[in-house]
Amino acid sequence: MLDKSPPPPAVSVPNDLAAFWMPYTANRAFKRAPRMLAGAKDMHYFTTDGRKILDAAAGMWCSNAGHGRSQISAAIAKQAETLDYAPPFQFGIPQAFELASRIAELAPAGLDHVFFCNSGSEAADTALKIALAFHQIQGQGTRTRLIGRERGYHGVGFGGTSVGGIVNVIVEPMAGSTGVLPAPKGYLKRLREITQKHGILLIFDEVITGYGRLGYAFAAERYGVLPDMITFAKGITNGAAPMGGVIVRDTIHDAFMSGRDHVVELTHGYTYSAHPLACAAGLATLDIYRDEKLFERANKLEPKFADAVMSLKGEPNVVDIRTVGLTAGIDLAPRAEQPGKRGFDSLNSAFHDNDLMLRIAGDTLALTPPLIVSEDQIGEIIDKVAKVIRAVA
Ligand SMILES: Cc1ncc(COP(=O)(O)O)c(C=O)c1O
Fold it and tell me: Which member of 14, 46, 71, 243 has the greatest number of CB atoms within 10 A?
């Protein structure tokens, strides 16, 4: 059903946009024509000038349960009043243990231990650090090489950026941020066989693919492949609080649990690891995913979503379309000598002229709606995207 509720009133915007150096943003272009957001509910964002924007991006692959979920905000508010902060080094809070157990339950059997951090980048760095330390414990300290894949994206930490490339392989089961590139059939299974044969640890970066995006709790389940570690972030809290983490295989975790028991086993962690507000948000989010069967919903919608996106094939400059789960990448031919410009124009046309939020990677348009998207809304997204593609032709 289309949401016909009225948008909230306009919100005032500061006159001076200079001080905030925006992340991963064309700052000068943004500040000339700001894409400014003031609120969000379910499938929509609301702009500061009171427009309603259909969210075809789940924010940034985060808000799988849609926006403004009161169950999550209430859990965060209650947590903030009860226990705002607790040191995660040498102290614990019950919610962190409960959330770790819930995540381990969702993960493939054998991946039973969770190390919390605050983002996907920190999760990549943490997983790589665990891998290197594990090899040291095993007496294989010379195994220090990290492998990534071309067009992989694992965040902006030094560890994550270094694996854009043998001892650890980090791979996204579907490369998301660089343009929605699903793994070829059988690729991940073969990768597991090869890494196993050579004693190489396999890390799945599920920052995007985790928590239902591909119709399963994790892509590892969808593809029937058991990695040694899974990194996650984004969907764990529905985007409502920063949180990331690494799910670690028992054999790796257990290897650290030796030596004198007053000694820290892994000299790693963050001041905000397992932050109480993020744990509360995570628990409430997992409740929603479970109660509303959102992973199954994504799975059921996948063929309909794919058919709808494929209907864009004949639109001008469309050179390729890929879909997997509730995710699509639409490659547009670049403008002559201006790579990325057609994509950037699409972002603006979508937001300013068509009340649509999408993501871009160069000249690729990425559609990754919240998993609550209705069939009507899929149709609405596709109509709007067609208008955008024609507008930038
Ligand atoms: C696959 C993948 N890994 C890691 C990251 C980095 O996550 P964060 O921005 O939370 O550090 C991203 C961000 O989009 C991602 O897509």
Answer: 243
157 & 47 share domain: no
The confidence band for 4, taking pLDDT boundaries of 50, 70 and 90, is: low
* Residue whose C-alpha is closest to residue 223's, from 209, 239, 240: 209
Does the structure show a pLDDT above 70 at 181?
yes
Cα separation, 137 vs 379, whole angstroms = 54
Q: Are residues 171 and 302 in the same domain?
A: no
Are 104 and 211 members of one domain?
yes
- Of all atoms in ligand 1, which is nearest to the CA of residue 121? 11
Model-level pTM greater than 0.85? yes
Strand partners, 168: 146, 201
Q: If you search the block for the tokens 């040498």, which residue do you land on?
A: 90
End-to-end Cα separation, the chain, in angstroms = 31
pLDDT average, residue stretch 352-359: 98
Nearest-CA residue for ligand 1 atom 13 is: 155
- Pocket mutation for ligand 1, best pick of 207, 208, 360 (most atoms within 8 Å of C-beta): 207
Partnered with residue 47 across adjacent β-strands are: 37
What's the pLDDT at 165? Answer: 37
Instruction: Give the ligand 1 atom nearest the CA of 122.
Output: 11
Give the residue, out of 121, 209, 270, 272, with the most ligand 1 atoms within 8 A of its beta carbon, to mutate for a pocket test.
Answer: 121
Give the number of domains in the chain. Answer: 2
- pLDDT, residue 113, reads 98
Q: Are residues 206 and 115 in the same domain?
A: yes
CATH number at residue 378: 3.90.1150.10
Residue 61 lies in a domain: yes
Q: Is residue 19 part of a domain?
A: no
